[in-house]
Backbone:
């Protein structure tokens, strides 16, 4: 199995629009969804040939198979080190969990008030029978802090992109004046994020990846992407100059399942170690041992997910659903906490020439805390789930998860 | 059957027409909805401060010129920019529209061939993606050398021959007579009809000014591009464009 890392540099503004049902305003998303990248690559392949896709060919394997390639979302990767210093994150860009909190009045990573995670504390408080209303170490009120983040030289940085509004008008050919009802505004993502000290503008850079199980096909796709890199356009209004990007690729082998399950086990061990430490602190209120013999782990949604249970949409990954996703039977599996919210998403399918159905989806950053008494059975299935995803349309980047995100270990006293 | 390895071997780079517009006068491309300027009509800039002529304006203007040329040659052309009067709606009408030259090689769900006028085949419409990709024309001059120029204007009352009340306005323009070069390109995607380059070059020759207040002397330009010097367009293409199908008697043109 191979992973093609994509570094996408915007050369013109990107119009990544989303229109919610019933709304008349087209908003811009602050990242490039995997489904947009997938659609652009598929359209480009079809434009290059007069052949039609057939069963078993590369197009079918990449886009149409049950085990099709996974096109992950592209998240902004520009770090703002200071007012005139920028860099591109070398590490992984991740989504902050829904349990991340920061000061209401001075929110942000250090040197601002700092960001911390409340999952473990809120779980301990609830299990000890206490009401948990967090504040920061200065006593200020806190509220959820959402977005993308990465670590750079030991410090945490939030990632975001600037947006602006472009206004355009159609011209009536007879009167040579503005055409009625063709005045419109497009919200776009800026192609530059500011100027460095020497005056050079910092281009907006996004990072994404494509996961492919067929090694030869991965190499062929990388060659195709490199050859056609100057001609890719992402988002809307592409023939009118928007969405021009430059794509750099880097291919790597994905570790085998044993190695990946070892990584998952190490993460789960550290998570449980910290949870037990915290649990012992909360035990000053009343001595409780309800965590004894149980191993806890979290699922953190790194992208929006489309989840359904009993043919109905849901925003919670239940024990039965997780058993089904991993194809194992664990009657001891228990869901303790779920932090999730929902939104609606539609889109345009160029192949159909029609709008996609409106889907109810669970927002990225959602957190689910599970525990089990048989952790050994879970390491490998969770490693597989982390590389594949949960729910529907995983090949379009939906349902990407991370097991036991390290940010859960950032507590209130050590807010980053 | 689509195999990426064979696609990679037969890779042919897309045709790109480089373009440079030298602005002879001052340029005034208004940025609708902008704020932070003293003028009533601020000039459009990129996020890094460079002046631009947006691709949407170049595309719209070139489409208009190509429509004029094709119509003058006798081709039936739909009426942009309103979707209701463009090709997909015209397809069922009588006239010389459903002609073999207008077939795009694709078929409707009922099996009948799809027809789009010559212009829509290049520039697209709500049901057909464009085969041409335009880029913004970006001023290559450093933004520090293109300071904000405010040009005041006032309307004259025709009876009193004095300034009309509430008609004093300020336009933001590029520096006048600075011969600022704006560069960009037009990319012809694979599958672009073979007459595209001829029509584009002919259309560009008809564009003498861009932006606002053209009749007041702003935005006048001349094109510089290697494709104008050696266009390498076959005579067959010119003959094809000149041989528009004649409309049937009684049908709409």
Residues:
């Amino acid at each position: 199995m191979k992973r093609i890392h994509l570094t996408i540099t915007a050369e013109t503004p990107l119009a990544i629009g989303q229109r919610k049902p019933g709304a008349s305003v087209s908003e811009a998303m602050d990242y490039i969804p995997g489904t947009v990248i997938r659609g652009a690559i598929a359209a480009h392949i079809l434009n290059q040939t007069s052949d039609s896709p057939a069963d078993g060919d590369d197009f079918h394997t990449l886009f149409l198979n049950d085990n099709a390639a996974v096109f992950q979302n592209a998240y902004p990767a520009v770090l703002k080190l200071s007012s005139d210093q920028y860099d591109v994150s070398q590490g992984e860009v991740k989504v902050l969990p829904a349990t991340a909190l920061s000061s209401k009045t001075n929110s942000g990573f250090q040197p601002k008030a700092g960001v911390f995670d409340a999952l473990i504390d809120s779980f301990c408080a609830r299990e000890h029978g206490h009401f948990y209303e967090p504040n920061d170490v200065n006593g200020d009120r806190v509220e959820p802090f959402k977005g993308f983040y990465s670590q750079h030289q030991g410090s945490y940085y939030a990632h975001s992109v600037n947006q602006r509004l472009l206004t355009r008008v159609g011209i009536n050919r007879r009167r040579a004046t503005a055409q009625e009802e063709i005045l419109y505004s497009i919200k776009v993502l800026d192609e530059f994020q500011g100027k460095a000290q020497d005056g050079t503008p910092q281009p907006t850079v996004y990072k994404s990846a494509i996961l492919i199980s067929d090694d030869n096909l991965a190499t062929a796709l990388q060659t195709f992407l490199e050859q056609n890199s100057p001609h890719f356009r992402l988002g809307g209004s592409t023939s009118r100059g928007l969405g021009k990007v430059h794509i750099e690729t880097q291919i790597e082998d994905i570790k085998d399942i044993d190695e990946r399950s070892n990584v998952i086990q190490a993460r789960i061990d550290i998570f449980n170690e910290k949870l037990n430490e915290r649990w012992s602190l909360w035990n000053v209120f009343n001595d409780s041992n309800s965590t004894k013999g149980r191993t806890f782990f979290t699922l953190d949604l790194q992208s929006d997910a489309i989840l359904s249970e009993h043919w109905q949409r849901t925003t919670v990954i239940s024990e039965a659903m997780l058993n089904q996703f991993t194809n194992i039977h664990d009657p001891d599996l228990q869901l303790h906490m779920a932090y999730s919210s929902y939104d609606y998403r539609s889109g345009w399918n160029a192949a159909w020439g029609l709008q996609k159905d409106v889907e109810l989806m669970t927002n990225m950053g959602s957190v689910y805390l599970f525990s089990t008494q048989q952790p050994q059975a879970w390491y490998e299935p969770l490693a597989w789930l982390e590389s594949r995803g949960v729910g529907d349309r995983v090949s379009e980047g939906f349902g990407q998860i991370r097991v036991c995100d390290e940010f859960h270990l950032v507590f209130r006293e050590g807010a980053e | 059957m689509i195999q990426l390895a064979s696609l990679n071997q037969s890779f042919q780079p897309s045709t790109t027409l480089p373009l440079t517009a030298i602005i002879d006068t001052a340029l005034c491309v208004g940025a609708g909805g902008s704020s932070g300027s003293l003028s009533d009509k601020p000039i459009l800039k990129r996020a890094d401060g460079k002046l631009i002529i947006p691709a949407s304006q170049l595309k719209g203007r070139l489409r208009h010129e190509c429509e004029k040329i094709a119509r003058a040659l006798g081709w039936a052309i739909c009426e942009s920019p309103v979707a209701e009067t463009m090709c997909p709606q015209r397809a069922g009408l009588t006239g010389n529209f459903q002609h073999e030259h207008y077939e795009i090689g694709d078929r409707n769900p009922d099996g009948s061939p799809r027809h789009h006028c010559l212009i829509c085949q290049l520039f697209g419409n709500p049901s057909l993606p464009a085969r041409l990709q335009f880029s913004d024309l970006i001023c290559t001059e450093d933004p520090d050398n293109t300071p904000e120029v405010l040009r005041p204007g006032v309307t004259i009352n025709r009876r009193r021959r004095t300034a009309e009340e509430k008609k004093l306005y300020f336009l933001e323009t590029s520096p006048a007579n600075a011969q600022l070069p704006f560069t960009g390109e037009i990319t012809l995607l694979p599958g672009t009809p073979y007459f595209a380059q001829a029509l584009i070059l002919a259309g560009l020759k008809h564009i003498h000014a861009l932006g606002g207040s053209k009749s007041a002397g702003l935005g006048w330009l001349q094109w510089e591009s290697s494709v104008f010097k050696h266009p390498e367009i076959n005579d067959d293409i010119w003959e094809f464009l000149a041989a528009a199908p004649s409309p049937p008697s009684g049908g709409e043109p």
User: Anything to note?
Assistant: The helical segments of chain B are 4-9, 55-72, 87-90, 118-123, 196-205, 226-229, 235-242. The mean pLDDT of chain B is 85. The longest helix of chain B spans residues 55-72.
